[in-house]
Every structure is written in C-alpha cells, then in structure tokens.
Amino acid sequence: MESDQHVIVESDHKPLVGLLDKPIASCSPRIQRMRLQLQRFDFSLVYKPGRELFIADTLSRAPSPRLFDDDVTAECEEQVHHVIQSVVPVDSTRRKYASATLLDPTLQSLQSVMKSGWPERKSQCPISVKPYWPVRHDLSTVGGIVLCGTRLVVPNSLRREALDGVHDGHFGESKRILRAKSSVYWPGWEDQVRNAVASCRNCQEHRRKNPKFPLFPTRVPEYAFQFLSADLFEFSRVNYLLLVDAYSKWPCVVPLKSTTSSAVIGEMSRFFCDFGRPEELESDNGTQFSSAEFREFCRQFGVRQVSSSPEFAQGNGLAERHIQTVKQTLLKMFEDGKTLWESLAAIRSTPVSSSLPAPSILLQGRNLRSSLPFLPSELAPKFVPASVVQRELSTRQARAAFGQNRSPSARMSALQIGQRVRALIKDRWLPGAVSSVCSGPQSYVIQLDDGRLFR
C-alpha cells in the first residue's frame, strides 16, 4: 500500500490488466459495468505470475463453504446473464456456432491460449492464433462461442454464410462494413467484405457514377502553338473544326463540308501553314483523329498525337471548354446578324483574364484593329515575356485544381495495375480490373471479368 487510500492489486490474470487500461467506451458492456462499479476505488492493477501469488493462490484452494450473497452480487449476476443473452444469438444459431467453433482447430487453439493467458510477445503465440493478437483484450468465451467484444467470432466454415448475410440488401461498401462491424468478426473480414462488393455484378452495374475526377496540372507550354487541342462540334446543323492553342488560348474555327479525316487534314494543314506545326496535338478518339490517314499526317508533320480517355470528355478539357465559349458567342452574335469571323475576332481580342492579355497579344504581340477605338500606340507590337505567361498559366491551373479538388467527391488517386474498377460500356457499369496504363492522360486499359479489353 503506497498511501492510506491507494491500493495495489496483484493478479495473475494478465488480460485483466489490459482491460482496465483501455478506454471505457471501447469495452464490452459487461466490462464497462465492472469498470463503473470499481470507479469509487483508487487502485492500481499489476500482473504477477501465479507461482508468486501465494496468498491468493492458497485462498482459492480453500474457499469458504458459506455462500456469500447480497443484493449487489445478485444484481451483478442478473446483469451478466442479461448481457450474455443479448450478445449470443438465438438457440439455433448458438448451437450452430458452438458446433462450428468446436470443430475449428484455430478457434480451439485460440481458446486454449485465452484460458492459459496470452504470452508476453506476439512471436510466442501459435501461428494460427497470431492474427487475433491485436484484439486479444476484447476476446471472451460464452457457451462455447468466442466473442470479440459484442461481436461473434465466426468459425472458418461459417464465414461464407456470414458474408452472404452482410451482403443482403446490396448496400454500398461503407454500409456493408458497418453492417459486419455490428455483429461478426474474423481476421481480414474488412478486406473480404470489400472484395465481395467489388466482385458483385449487380452492385457494380447499379452503382452510382464515379466521383468527379480531380484536376491534374498539365505541362505548361513554353511558346505559342507548341501544344494544341482539337475537336469537332455541331452548331445549327453545321459541323465545325476547332483548334485551340494552350499557350495563347487562340481559337481556330472553320466550318466543314465533310467530317472525314481528309477534310480535317486539309483544314489543319492551312492552320499549320499560318501558325507553324505544333509539337503535340491532343484530341478525343473520334474516327477522324484515330484513322490511319490522320496518324500518317501527324507523323509526316512531326506532330505527337495524344488522345484522351474514351467516354471521358474532360480528358480533352481545353478543347471542350473553348467549344462552350465559341458556341455561346455564336449563339448571341448570330442573333445580332454577325458572322463566324466576327465572333472569332471578338474572342481573339478579349483578354484571357485580369492577369493575361488577349490571345492576339499572346500569339501575335499586338491588338487587332476592330470596332474598339484603340490608340495608335496600343496597335503597335508588344512583347509579353514567356516567363510571365508561364507563371500566370501555372497559377490558373493551381487555382482551378484547388477549387475543385478540395471537395469530398474529388478525392481520387491514380489507378494501379490490378486494381478492381468498373467500366461504362454501352450505358452499363461492368466490373473488371486495370490491365495496363496508357500513355494518354488518365487513360487505362480495363479487362472485364468476361475477358474483354476496353480502353
């Protein structure tokens, strides 16, 4: 005894020391009740091997024949029996789990270790019992059934049945983990529940859409017309080809009489003649850009062709965003009786942002003479250092990525080979796995469970 009120209690039951050191909220109801009744006492519980616990060992071998019973003891017994009845399932399930536990060699070995006391180190445990080491202080036995807190420790022979029970309702992954966590336990249960969700065809086909993919910063161009983005769009029953420069945001738009690869190549050749050949051309997977004729055209001009991921228009975001701008401008200016060329002139002479001048200045170094009353000095050639443009473009990328990626729905990392995913094929979500990573931005080859390959 260290003081008049603090008491040191020695016990040869080592798991009891761990139970009293745990936060009371994480204990089972039975242990919580014991902890609450002991709160009025100031004591420290220390472990002492049974061979050194002489007095308690002697008294345990010479119990008093007089039965001690009072109201507190009776109340505790009633509470213990109530907890056991509430934790252990109905008789039929109880008998089934008790029989399966009796035939499970791992759980029998586990019960032996629990009865004799856990060793000092995990390495001293039998190999089959080591997976239970992290929850050793939560384990107990009732009527031949092993419990982890208030959860049933499921024998190996009943785990498939338990997984099917957790799977009832086809809830999402998070709900199913919570459902399992409320009733059953076995080592590795969480990964098995996740795998069951990923391999369920119904769950994958009817699952909600993937979260919005976060923005990834792209390489900032060093000069004008270094990186281009191309796409086709339709407006008022007329097909147009759009080409936009990643450096100056200068849009090139021309109506097409035909949407064949030959027509697209002819118009692009004119643009390349006016502004020079780019190093890289990004497009979607339309037949005009994926044909052998167009690939040969890019090879002859020394242009590296990059295609966005199929069914993912955001991969070609630069062209998609400028299509919106061009369409909105055409819609409004056509109503005023203006032409396509007047609409393009307005876009090219409008500043990109408060920190970046108009595309005409970034590309040609001058303002375009138009209906705006420019001073002669403003029409003279200007020079904007490339370092300034690159810094502002990088700042715009970072600001846009921060604004979108901080939302909870945008927390998605790059996929890994072998990772389970689902692919949207003909308006159906089909389960599969990542087979390889493509050179295009955020693009992968997916092998479906039926063996088919899709990009």
- Tell me the number of helical segments per DSSP (H or I, 4 or more residues long): 18
Q: Any idea what the CATH architecture of the largest domain is?
A: 2-Layer Sandwich
Total beta-strand segments: 15
Biggest sheet details:
5 strands, mixed
Which strands sit side by side, in order, in the main sheet? 9-8-7-10-11
Full CATH superfamily name of the largest domain: Ribonuclease H-like superfamily/Ribonuclease H
- Give the CA-CA distance, first to last residue: 74 Å
Percentage of residues assigned to helices: 40-55%
Strand content: 15-25%
* Low-confidence parts: 70-74, 405-412
Class from helix and strand fractions: alpha/beta
Mean pLDDT score: 80
Shape verdict: elongated
CATH class of the largest domain: Alpha Beta
Task: From the 3D structure, determine the CATH topology of the largest domain.
Answer: Nucleotidyltransferase, domain 5
The radius of gyration is 36 Å
**Total separate domains:** 4
